[in-house]
């Protein structure tokens, strides 16, 4: 999978490394800003109140 | 000779032709296995990142937001003093109503806002209950229970060190013109998350039977999970007026 991505990136090894880094940063950004905030309330780690539910 | 040569040529050709075919067959399985392995590694990394997000990044965001909102409240208080308008800040429920100081738990002052939804608490503040049992605000002067909730981990983790609070420790609630000094008299280190009785006007589990001015702090426990709730009860000792320099009461000095 990662090998396939690597082979399909343009340029020489340095260009590919830079593009890979940019892709990793983009994925982390999307996870931290959209995916994790969405997933967090669905997981039982951060309920602090007492309630009837 | 020729035949032999042809034979060997055929043999070598066949020998060199067969292994790639076998490698291609193995290759499909190997590719499937390696993609599966890479997916597992990716899943592990994503889970690791989620831990980083929960325990670090949410704190960064929440501390920033809490500082902004706290500054706003302090600004409004200072501004009202300038204008000398009679309307006290604590009745504006959109902003924070005051600050909570628990010296044994944290050196910071914790902004208190209305409501305990995660949208409010995720800003790194403490919220007073409106549901299922409505909190009685100390500013109302009525007897009742001032019940609060805040995060133990992540999102500011304002109540992270709640286990350090012991009987006799002070809890001070600061409003624009009063210091409400409470003293901790009861701790319930573990209770069900459905135990809403801890929020009652007279929290019987704490040993009280008469109405009084109580404060209740709730958060989740054990640390890093939400299986149970940790409760700390305090009772109002005295109310001090805020002076011009906002000199804190002796408990905070």
- β-strand amount of chain B: 15-25%
**Mean pLDDT metric of chain B:** 86
Q: Which stretches of chain B are poorly predicted, pLDDT < 50 over at least 5 residues?
A: 1-10, 12-17
Please write the string of helix (H) and strand (E) elements of chain A: HH
Identify the most extensive interface between protein chains.
Answer: A-B, 19 and 39 residues
Main structural class of chain A: mainly alpha
Low-confidence stretches of chain A: none
End-to-end Cα distance of chain B, whole Å, is 107 Å
Kindly state the percentage of residues in helix of chain A. 55-70%
Q: What is the count of distinct domains of chain A?
A: 1
Q: Please tally the helical runs of chain B, counting DSSP H or I stretches of 4 or more residues.
A: 2
Number of domains of chain B: 1
Please list the strands of the largest sheet of chain B in the order they lie side by side: 1-2-3-4-7-8-6-5
- The counted number of beta strands of chain B is 8
Distance separating the two termini of chain A: 43 Å
Keywords (chain A): Membrane, Transmembrane, Transmembrane helix
Organism (chain A): Streptomyces shaanxiensis
Protein name (chain A): DUF4175 domain-containing protein
Transmembrane segments (chain A): 12-36
Q: Would you write up a description of this structure?
A:
Chain A: The chain crosses the membrane at residues 12-36. Chain A: Keywords: Membrane, Transmembrane, Transmembrane helix. Chain A: This is DUF4175 domain-containing protein. Chain B: Residues 1-23 are annotated as: Disordered. Chain A is mainly α. Chain A has two helices and no strands. Chain A has helices spanning 2-8, 13-39. Chain B has one domain (58-252): Sortase, Chain: A (Beta Barrel). Helices cover 34% and strands 24% of the residues of chain B. In chain B, strands 1-2-3-4-7-8-6-5 form an eight-stranded mixed beta barrel. Chain B is elongated and about 80 Å long. Classes of the chains: A mainly alpha (53), B alpha+beta (253).
């Amino acid at each position: 999978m990662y090998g396939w991505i690597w082979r399909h990136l343009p340029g020489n090894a340095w260009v590919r490394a830079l593009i890979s880094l940019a892709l990793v940063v983009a994925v982390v950004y999307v996870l931290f800003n959209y995916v994790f905030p969405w997933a967090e309330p669905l997981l039982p780690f951060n309920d602090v109140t007492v309630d009837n539910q | 000779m020729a035949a032999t040569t042809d034979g060997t040529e055929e043999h070598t050709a066949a020998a060199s032709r067969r292994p790639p075919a076998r490698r291609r067959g193995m290759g499909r399985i190997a590719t499937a296995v390696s993609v599966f392995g890479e997916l597992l590694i990716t899943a592990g990394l994503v889970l690791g990142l989620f831990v980083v997000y929960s325990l670090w990044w949410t704190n960064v965001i929440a501390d920033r937001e809490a500082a902004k909102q706290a500054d706003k409240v302090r600004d409004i208080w200072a501004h009202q003093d300038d204008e000398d308008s009679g309307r006290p800040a604590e009745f504006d429920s959109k902003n924070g109503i005051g600050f909570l100081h628990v010296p044994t738990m944290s050196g910071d002052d914790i902004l208190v806002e209305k409501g305990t939804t995660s949208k409010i608490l995720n800003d790194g503040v403490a919220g007073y209950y409106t549901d299922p049992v409505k909190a009685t605000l100390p500013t109302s002067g009525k007897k009742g229970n001032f019940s609060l909730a805040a995060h133990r981990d992540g999102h500011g983790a304002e109540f992270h060190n709640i286990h350090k609070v012991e009987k006799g420790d002070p809890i001070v609630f600061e409003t624009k013109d009063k210091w409400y000094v409470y003293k901790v008299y009861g701790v319930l280190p573990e209770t069900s998350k459905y135990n809403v009785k801890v929020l009652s006007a007279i929290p019987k589990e704490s040993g009280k039977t008469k109405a009084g001015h109580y404060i209740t702090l709730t958060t989740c426990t054990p640390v890093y999970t939400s299986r149970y709730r940790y409760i700390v009860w305090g009772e109002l000792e005295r109310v001090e007026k805020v002076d011009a320099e906002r000199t804190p009461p002796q408990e905070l000095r």
